[in-house]
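Q: What would this complex look like in 3D?
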Amino acid sequence: MAIRWLKVVLFLGCLVPVARLGWRAYTNALGANPIEFITHSTGDWTLILLLTTLTITPLRKLTGLSALIRFRKMLGLFAFFYATLHFTTYIWLDKFFNLHEMLADVLKRRFITVGFLGLVLLIPLAVTSTAGWIRRLGGKRWQQLHRLIYVSALAGVVHYIWLVKADLRKPLQYAAVLALLLGYRIVAWLKGASRKVASAPAAPVRVGQE
Amino acid sequence: MLIKKSSDIKSSEITPKNALLNRRTFLAGTAVASAAVATGLAWRELAAPSIVAQANTKIDGIQKSKFSTSEAITPFKDVSSYNNYYEFSTEKEEPSKLAGNLKTRPWTVAIDGLVKKKQTFDVDAIMKMATPEERIYRHRCVEGWSIVVPWVGFSLSELIKRADPLPKAKYVEFTTLEDPKQMPGLRVPVLKWPYLEGLRMDEAMNPLALLCFGMYGEALPNQNGAPLRMVLPWKYGFKSAKAIVKISFTEQQPVNTWNLSAPSEYGFYSNVNPTVDHPRWSQKTERRLGEFRKRDTLMFNGYGDQVASMYSGMDLRKNF
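A: Here is my prediction, written as structure tokens for the whole assembly.
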């Protein structure tokens, strides 16, 4: 029961950034360049939510709070939601649905190429986020597919690094957090591998929700 | 739709009761913390003064200029709250909040390098060297946005005449204030400080090159480059140095800060040119602040009649 309510809280919490944008738009408080403001804000929240999604597993393992897993799907879907808003701002308010120009951008400008890649990779993850798809794919294959989030998060951070003019501090903060989160997984994987080599009894592996 | 039903819980995920209690405390704590952060952010935004109030001084005797555009002027609020001024911060909304304490008087400008006589002018003396003119210029940032601003000042050539440079002086170099006590952004080495800019002598003598000390009929707000800045409407905005403390005349082409930072992206000339893209984004169009649709960027920002001849015969792809 508590989990259910916390999910409601989390759901509403994840809507705060977009509600805030809406409120600012309504009160004319988006600054001198509202479209840039919306682009940056939705981009930031995409990265924050991607990284939060990636924090669930390490946090779960370190704290033993296995129930945290039940918030992961929602966080991941909200990351996709903000990525979609970010892209919509670009294609609509920057390119005005000029697909030719957009394609030229994607092919020519590396920060857009890599950002676009990050978004596209999230699509299959959003589509297969349901219990039905986990069943259809089988836990292991589903899990393998969903490792694409690592590539997507990396693409998102690189997208930001390649975009800024001189001040790399903010994108590098995201990069540091991502490095920590991926580093944790590499260490965990290496440990697991060495344990297997030592042919110690393998820890029980839970399939499906990892 | 995104909220999972409790029936989705797998039996493998049912946790012992003591762990559950910890978890509840932890999660409740997290929820409270998030709510607090959100409230705090909201409060900060409501409470923060958007623009530091500044004692704006009216400038008397301003004449109209034939160089002014009749295009719609961007609101003062936008021009004074959306500033690329890395000496204060790399965030555009920050200089308007951080520049309030910058001391702009007394202020002197050193005339240095290849001149008959090196000297130092008080900024108030400079402002009296010629009749102040209102020049309503288009201003195009290299990032792809633009504004229309009624600047106040006079042609830089008026000062250059009085500085009396030697014939072998081929370039003008602008040095800007570097005072980390007043400019918090200087503590961060995002660029090499102080911020330097330069012009070829003919560019500096072009009547469009404005030595500027006001906008909207009043003294410049600090975040817009007070007390003295350049305005070069046919070049990308970063060429127009702010808070100038020294003007030097040189034989060699001066270094300019952004060129030093990324030579492939920012050239010495940096003339507005829709046909030469920034390596990472297109320069074909721009967003005029306050407008929804983007507009086409004009060659030399629409000032070709006055400036194109200075670059005839030059490959503007190479000399970007």
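A: To summarize the key features: Chain A is about 80% helix and 0% strand. The mean pLDDT of chain A is 92.
Q: Very helpful, thank you.
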